[in-house]
Structures are given as C-alpha cells and as structure tokens.
Amino acid sequence: MGADAPHSAAPSPRHGYTAAQVRAAEAPLLAAGEPLMQRAAAALADEIARLLGLPSDGDSSGTAADGTRRPLVVVLAGSGDNGGDALFAGARLAERGADVRIVAVGTRMHEAAAAAAHRTGANDLDPDGDPTGFAAAIDDADVLVDGILGIGAAASPALRGRARDVVARVLERLAERGHAERAPGTRHPLVVAVDLPSGISPDDGRVPDPTVLPADVTVTMGAVKAGLLLPPASRLAGRVVLVDLGLGPALAAVEPVVTV
Q: Which of 164, 165, 232 shows the shortest CA–CA distance to 198?
C-alpha cells in the first residue's frame, strides 16, 4: 500500500480507544513498513493549510493564496513521533508558502523530520536565546501547532521541564492578548493539536496539570483517543478531526472504551 493509498472501514469518530489499543492496531502496519508518519503529517498539513487558505498540496507557490504576507506557523516540537508528525507537516506547509518557526521543547527533535523542515526553509526559534523574538512570533502567529506529546507519554501526561515552561510562557502571552476571550474557531492564533492536546490523558481525559494549551482543532491519528471524548480533556480538544491511517480492520473487533 503506498503513502496515498485509500483506506476502508475507518474507525468511527464516535468511538474512543485507549493508547494501548491504538498502538496495537498500528503495530502490524508499522512492521509492514507502512509510512504512517508521512500519512499523518500530510493530513495534518492539509488541515492547517485549509485553516490558512494556503495552496493545495503540490502547489509550491511560495506565497499565501491571496498574495498577501506569508502566514506564520509556530511548531512546538517534542522529542518523539508527535513532534515528528508536526515537523513533517511544517515542511509541507513551508513548501506551500508558510513561514514556519520551530520551537524545540525536548532534549532533541525527530532527526529526519527536523531535517525535512529545515530543507524547506523552516527556522528554529529559541525562547531562551531570543525571548523577544519568541514573544513576537507568538503575537504574530496565525497557527500554533502543539506537537509536544502524543500517546507515548509517561504514566502521567502532565508536561514537565522545558515543555511545561514553554507552554506556560505561551499561555501567559496569549492571556495578555485576550486570546481566551474570543470564540473558539475565530481566535488568532488558532491552536492545532497533533493527536491530542499535550498534557491530557489519552485514556480517561484526566488533566493532572492546568498547563495545557487549549486547542481549536485536534487532528487525531488513526482513531479517536478516548480522552478526547471525556471531560475535562474534551473541553480542551476543540474540533476533533480524525485522520484515517488504515486502523479500521484491526480495531473492528476491539471494544472502544467510550462511545458518544
């Protein structure tokens, strides 16, 4: 099956699965060499491009669709596959004309994804080395991409260390600009979470620490995580977009932990 091959019998967006159930469904596809990360990144980039009015995939015009300034996308990239999805999506968005800035919030970045993003013109942004530039980027961003943590997080999903510090600074900056007072879907910048907002439990919707960036849109991969359908996390997920990665057949015989 190629990277753009169609899938059938996608999981229902009304069904929520645990992280373990999703990982088990992914395992045979990954073992077979299916490019799940590339599919996820392509779908993530498509959703963000729609929000920004950028050209369709394959149209590398280098400008916004209406010829105005390049939209600014700030990617908060963690160390794992969630950050890899965000960075590969950033590369695709840069190819379509977005100004992409990368904030590394872990001890490293997904090597291949970071290289792809840099090749297409994405630039690194260091909140500590350039606090003024970081604050300006948050102010000017059209989209903030939360690619910090996915379903492979530790037992507690709470953000820690540099990731928590960066998100706290983003939240403070957004609060100063009245971001939280605007209606979801109309805020500027829009926040797009990769798979789930970082800091929520994928299994039961717990939010053990309030340092979470509320999403306007959550692009969830393969199957909807149960935590996205359960409060209090469901109130932080915004509009949930399910990306079909071909997990439907593997999940067909699996009982979801929640159905809405």
A: 164
Q: How many domains does the chain have?
A: 1
Residue 4 lies in a domain: no
For the stretch 44-72, pLDDT in tens is 999 999 999 998 765 555 444 455 789 99
Give domain status of residue 83, yes or no. Answer: yes
Which tens digits make up the pLDDT trace of 77-101? 999 999 999 999 999 999 999 999 9
The answer to whether the bond into 232 is cis (omega within 30° of 0) is: yes
C-alpha–C-alpha distance, residues 110 and 150, integer Å: 13
Q: How far apart are CA 141 and CA 71, in angstroms?
A: 7
Question: Is residue 8 included in any domain, yes or no?
Answer: no
Q: Over the range 85-115, which residues count as b (16 or more CB within 10 Å of their CB) and which as e?
A: bbbbbbbbbbbbbbbbbbbbbbeebbeebbe
Query: Do the domain assignments include residue 5?
Result: no
Between CA 93 and CA 49 the distance in angstroms is 7
* Cis? peptide before 189, omega within 30° of 0: yes
Q: At 222, which CATH number?
A: 3.40.50.10260
Write out the two tokens for 183: 């209606």
Containing structural domain, residue 150:
15-53+69-259
| pLDDT digits 0-9 by tens, 163-202 | 999 999 999 999 988 775 455 556 789 999 999 999 999 9
Secondary element (H or E) of residue 192 = strand 190-194
